[in-house]
Amino acid sequence: MQELKFVRDYKDIEPLRNSFFELAKDTFELELERWYEGGCWTDKYVPYSYAEGDRIVANVSVNLIELIINGVKSPAVQIGTVMTHPDYRGRGLSARLMDKVLEDYGQACEFMYLFANESVLEFYPKFGFLPVEEQIFSMSCPGGAAGSAAIRKLNLADPHDLSLASTLGAQRVPVSERLGVSGAHGLLMFYCLNVFSDQLYYLEDENLIAICQQENGQLELFDLISTQPFSCREIALKLADSDTETIVFHFTPDDPGLELSGSSHSEGLFVRTQGGLQYPANIKHPATSIA
């Protein structure tokens, strides 16, 4: 067995990059090749890894973004793609990588956060991360909603539609000023390509892409992507149809006067703050910016 070496930011080193993709696929069933080939792996995504030769065996990735809280931008790091090959677990590799991330970014950003699964909820508090309760919002759909005729379903296998999604995503305004994210184009495109490729709709009159799905009388809105400010309520009602009873927002709408119901929602959010700032509780982090 070779000695493990620490490697970081190796997107241009093909053997390491391909091994990283393989580990991500085996661990999380993530398909990252097309995401990379589309230019979505930028310098804002930095893997911290241990390698045995050219084989990645453990990883903690850094996503460099800005959080927008009540209209104010703050530098932030979102941790993601935390994984260790089964043959190398139990050796403290993830903890050592977390220490390296904290050494590089712990004093340089105001917020560091991640979304943890239930098997590791006791791991992150050891590094100063605290759990934060989220809330998901919904509204009743008024009767008579008929939707909009100028809506086209996108197909990202079509280069024109892929370019449209990428361009709007790169130039977008935050989906919310109460809690939004800036500089997360790579994360958004991952969701467009891998998670919501069949739920992308283009509203031509508004030049806006909605990521949504409708089932059993419930319209789920995962994101609204536009280069100009918009009304969440107006867009939601254009997407609704005669069967829609409830509209659920997987982000925090900030329309003035919007009547919303809220319910507790947990995706394992843990936050580490710097400089006395507070991450707001009881609001929803945008779904398409979760690493």
From TrEMBL:
InterPro entries: Acyl_CoA_acyltransferase, GNAT_dom, YpeA/RimI_acetyltransf. Its EC number is 2.3.-.-. The keyword Transferase applies. This is GNAT family N-acetyltransferase. GO terms for molecular function: acyltransferase activity. Keywords: Acyltransferase, Transferase. Residues 1-144 form the N-acetyltransferase domain.
